Every structure is written in C-alpha cells, then in structure tokens.
C-alpha cells in the first residue's frame, strides 16, 4: 500500500526500516501525505453494538404502578418460591444502533538514519491531520464582523493496518505524543510510541465489512 501511495505522488514520512514486514506496519494517509509506523503493543479494533432493555424492571401491571406493586407483593407473599409478575419480555433487548468502529493504535516510530524525517516529521504530520483550520471572530459587536466565520474541520483519513485492515472515512479523535524521549544532537526525537484513537465517521454496515479486509 505504501508503494502505491508513493507512485501516486504521496509524501511518505515515518518508519523506513526495510527489515520490518509490511504486515507489521500502519499507514495513515490524508491528502497527499502518508505517515507510516510499526504496529505497537496494545493496538486493537473495537466494535460496540448498542443493545438496551427498555422494559427492564417492568411487570405485567407496571403501567399501573400501584396495581403492579400489589401484584408483585402479593405473588411473593403467597409463596416461598418467590413468584413474580415480571416476564421474559422485561429483559428483551432492543438494538439501538452500532457505534462507529474504533481503533486504539500504538504507532511506533524510531530513527535509523534521519530522526527528523523518520520520527519528528511523522509526529508533526499526525498532529496536522487531527487539527482544524478555523477563522477568528471578533468578540465585540457582530461575531461575524470579520466577514467570514466559517472554518475547516479536520479532513478524514485512510487507515491501513498491516495491509489487511483498510478503512477509509476515518477521523483522528485523540493523539498522545511523548516528550520525555531521547533526542538527537539537533533536538529531534530518536523514537516515540504515539497513542492514537481513530474511529470511522459513521456506523459501518455489514455489507461494508468485507471491503475493510485487504
């Protein structure tokens, strides 16, 4: 995938270690820039479905709370078996949508010969990918007095994990960048583990799942 992007004119920064398999790397691409790093420990994908029990705790007479309470109390007191008017319908779960696919990624960067291109530039480009470009507005008078208060939100990215998990239309939700790492004589970081939280922009349909596997 990295070679395809290079041939398409993309600027590739980050890990340049030929000894690491392509299946052990992550590519994050936005526009004409691609950041590549090694898959770090703890990298994972999570899918969460929202299931809820809307009738939880309801009994047959729950629409009439006092009557329901009488039924519940009566049935319990009538038998030591602890009878109840609550039915299996009370625990029936209802699907209320899926959350977007989320990816917790540890992107490992380290320098072999050029700390700036292999580590520092990669970190900078990731931060740029997650950052908007908004216009300033005047705090006094008309908030739109500057003429244009419309800015630009961060663009979506394409995520490629190990060449077999390929997801387009993703957003970077958070980045954790270490500052307490060894640096070169020029002040560039020699290595860094970047923690990224990346999610799809919307819920993924089942018909789209197969296209996410390369």
Short description:
The chain has helices spanning 2-7, 65-78, 115-129, 206-209; strands at residues 11-14, 25-30, 33-39, 44-46, 49-52, 94-98, 102-110, 157-161, 165-176, 191-200. The protein is of the alpha+beta class and 214 residues long.
How many H/I helical runs?
4
Strand content: 25-35%
Strand order of the largest sheet: 2-3-7-10-9-8
Per DSSP E runs of 2 or more residues, the count of β-strands stands at 10
Q: Can you give the helix content as a percent range?
A: 10-25%
Distance N terminus to C terminus? Answer: 10 Å
Please tell me what the overall shape is: elongated
Unreliable sequence segments: 1-7, 64-68
- Run of helices and strands: HEEEEEHEEHEEEH
The overall average pLDDT, rounded, is 83
Radius of gyration using CA atoms only: 26 Å
* Secondary-structure-derived class: alpha+beta
Described by strand count, sense and barrel closure, the largest sheet is:
6 strands, antiparallel, barrel
